[in-house]
Amino acid sequence: MWPRISAAIVIVAATSALMLAQALPNPDGIDLSGSWAARNFTDAIGNMPGGGPRPVDYMGIPLNDIGRAWSLVYSQSQTSEPERICDYYAPTYIGIGPMGLRIWPESELLTGYTTAWMIGGWADFVPITIWMDGRPHPSQYAAHDKSGFTTGVWQDDVLVTNTTHMEASSIRRNGVPSSDRATMTARFSRHDDVLTVTVRIDDPVYLTEPYYLTRSFALSRAPLNPATHPCTVTNEGVEAERVPHYKPGQNPFVNELTELYGIPQEAVLGGAETALPEFRNTIKDKYVRPSKCVSVPVSTCGGPGTYPPID
Amino acid sequence: MEYRVRRSRARAFSLGAAGLLMVSALLAMQDEGRGQGRQNQPPASAKAVAPFDPTGYWSSLITQNWRLRMVPPGKGDYIGIPISAAGKKAADAWDQSKDEAAGNQCKAYGAPGLMNLPTHLHITWQDDNTLRVETDYGTQTRMLHFGSWTASQPRKRSWQGNSVAVWASRRGGRGGPPSARYLRIATTDLLAGYLRKNGVPYGENASLVEYVDLFKEPDGAALIIWTAVVDDPVNLETPYIISSQFKKQPNGSAWAPTPCSAGW
Fold first, then answer.
1. Looking at chain A, which residue has its C-alpha nearest residue B219?
2. What's chain B's average pLDDT?
3. Whole-model pTM above 0.90?
């Protein structure tokens, strides 16, 4: 009799263990995996494929005097220098670039525990690894690189990431700088099949307060290619030991937005106050509304076919 | 003797297992009873179950699309809007003076475009199931109705339409912590209006769904991210998805109501 009971106990225990294994808790948070097509309407100018913003367009950016001065000496030709050809492709590019996001989890095989979320690469933009296993950030003296170091936590089913150890780069694709002391917080907030990514950039060197950006994405059935070809240094003909730049007070584009769009200079040069509704009172009597869209180049006016539907 | 011990052990095991089953059954019944009790109670109000407190004064942070939002752009500037050929034809014919003559200065202040304008918000609970969202720019008021609210008949169109709101779960109704919810708003009964102050149109049959998140920063600051999805197969080639940022203000000192304007 006892051997039978023992056998029954063993069977029950084994079955229970098997059921328990099958009932492993789901990973934390919600599923962000998939191909998220960029819907670049929120910042059609900043995230515009190809051109991006005009050379001197700092409107809405909380620049301090140093950040403004550094922006104004910048020449777009710097991206032809071997040393700076890859400068834009820091993690901040997730907020200012035009690309969609391919996101997937890296999980432990036996437990399903998510050790990291991955954001795939795009062209010269390197993939981002968002560590979810609680590992600490490196020492402040550790090397900074193009990838930076990113950790994430779930807060109320929103993935909140923190990026440090970035190399100096840009927060707008016209040379507005970010320093190697900048940090980035990003919130990945999914609603149905719409993903809103809110980016906060803190930079004690060039900004007076946090700079916020948002981007929206729609879930796509057509897979985005997460491949990247690491930014390669090439010779684009800039002579050695020459850094293309404009001397202080000599940036030829400083009046461009005023001439093209009638926007007063104090708005063009940015500052935290330019992002607030009450700033309109400052420029109300100076703004001259263009009679029609200014095409520089033609595509900047938009129109049918500019934003194809996603699959 | 050994056999007896084994038999008594087996009996004890059987009794224990049976006891465990009974306790489990009792607990299950008790839980079921609690569930029925909950069903008999009136549903909690939207205000009572709000996962975050959206009330107070908020200010737009115009850090993106500045020249398209902070100042009225020129005619024909459609960058950032997936405008269709029909929409472009209508926008190309836009005439500010005609809107002013017809008393249509508020056409760019309808719900699909309102939150992306440079405005302050004043958000309050009108009652336990109605959230009131006022803007000083254009002096508009949106009423977000929770619960079993239905629009009065006959239905009437307006710039802000009729909005039904829910605290939605990010997990699509599959549970999760109550704090992980956001505000989802569906708006109908809109008057045709503009997505931008240069006459980019949306029709009265456009659909508007909005998602509202509130994030608190470690330094105590709070941010609302208001994402809108406008779908209008006539005037748009694809849904127009746009996010607007609002930063919490300590008080209403910056609140400055202005009337609708077809120009500035």
1. A210
2. 88
3. no
